[in-house]
Specification:
With 424 residues, this protein is α/β, with parallel strands linked by helices. The chain is 30% helix and 21% strand. The chain has twelve helices and 20 strands. The strands form five sheets. The protein has a ten-stranded mixed beta sheet, with helices on both faces. Strands 14, 16, 17 and 18 form a four-stranded mixed beta sheet that branches. The longest helix is centred in the middle third of the chain and has 16 residues, at 156-171. The radius of gyration is 21 Å and the shape is globular. It starts with a strand and ends in a 6-residue tail after the last strand. The structure holds guanosine-5'-diphosphate, 6-O-phosphoryl inosine monophosphate (IMO) and magnesium ion.
Length: 424
Amino acid sequence: MKADVLLGLQWGDEGKGKIVDVIAPKYDIVARFQGGPNAGHTLEFNGLKHVLHLIPSGIFHENIVNIIGNGVVIDPMVFKKEILALEKLGAKPQKNLFISKRAHLILPTHRLLDAASEASKGKEKIGSTLKGIGPAYMDKTGRNGLRVGDIFSPDFKKRYDFLVEKHKQLLGLYDFKYDLKEHEPAWFDGIETVKQFKCIETENYLNHAFAEKKSVLAEGAQGSLLDIDFGSYPFVTSSNTVCAGACTGLGIPPNKIGNVIGIFKAYCTRVGSGPFPTELNDATGEALRKSGNEFGSTTGRPRRCGWLDLPALKYAVAISGVTELIMMKADVLSGHDTIKVCTHYNYNGQKIDFLPYDITSFPLTPVYKDCKGWKSDLQNLAQSIPSELEEYIQFIQKEIKVPITMISVGPDRKQIINRSGILV
Ligand code: GDP
Ligand code: IMO
Ligand code: MG
């Protein structure tokens, strides 16, 4: 069997958590491959709303093994909080959650370094989630990091202290006050919680699973336009959010990748700083934020909203080899007379249909096609959809040349419409 990969194609928060939860029953294993507590994946079912950060979104399905892969960065404090919240809801994560020994740890000083770095940048800040993601991945690639497997070693505390000393020197370069003692007890408590879980070589587990014909869903975090290599650098996260990240973040060979499922909103949002060509700084943007309840699942920050950006979507589809699309939040577009879709950009005096390397130094303005809007409340719709929405879907499908197989029309597990996915 092969692993299907599920990815966000925009700037994150496309609705990945909901779809993983919906399609998880088709799989034996759900595995997160990158990111960390910067992610906020929302699941809604049976009147319950739950946000996951580090833990894969298949966790509510008892018979499915959930894996936190080597590409993820883990903050033990956040991990413990999430486990306690899940146990309160009756889940038994100790039974079906495995953690890679190779996953790197986010230390309290990584969080402090993230905050100090952001504060020093003033207006130029990335708008990070302040979860310590950038500094933790810097230590990973700088070959200084601590990994989950290290927590079982007798000299773990010594190695922790050594790294913290380095971080203190770095923190001394900033005008930034902190009290590490405030953060350490909860972090070491979290380490004890992590120790209660099966910490294993998950790459071996997964490759044996393929041999045993088990099916795997690799769950991405963030979105393709936040990828460290292909996103709007430097306004990105610090991991590879594209499909290739599933190979390096889980130890899955490229020839074991099956379907690549791309998740996108029927419009666009972005939280944090950085370019956003189709952003609407007007009443329409405000209306989208309100009807889409566009506030960050991790930080609560208002999300910036705008129309769908096809050149950016095509780029994300190309880089990950997306084979199937799922359109989210179609219900949020109800009530507009006209819905705009960006088909091209005017860039530095030229009309182009791709996302250029530098979208900040030269003027870039979107060129829109007008689509007819619809008024019906899609959240209460059964299986038929308004003809205007059907036209919108067909137009996107034709442009992207990848079938849209599902339309999501509300936050609940059940608010989803399956399509044949036939290109017309
Ligand atoms: P993720 O990070 O990609 O998992 O997405 P988030 O959970 O951060 O953000 C998606 C938000 O939209 C959550 O609040 C979901 O409950 C909600 N949501 C998901 N699908 C739909 C949908 O089709 N319609 C509406 N109105 N809300 C949705
Ligand atoms: P999910 O998985 C949306 C954004 C931050 C910031 C930039 C860098 O829920 O889609 P970081 O903390 O990673 O150093 O922040 O990336 N960002 C996200 N935006 N959804 C996410 O995750 C995000 N994770 C990080 O807002 O702009
Ligand atoms: Mg999110």
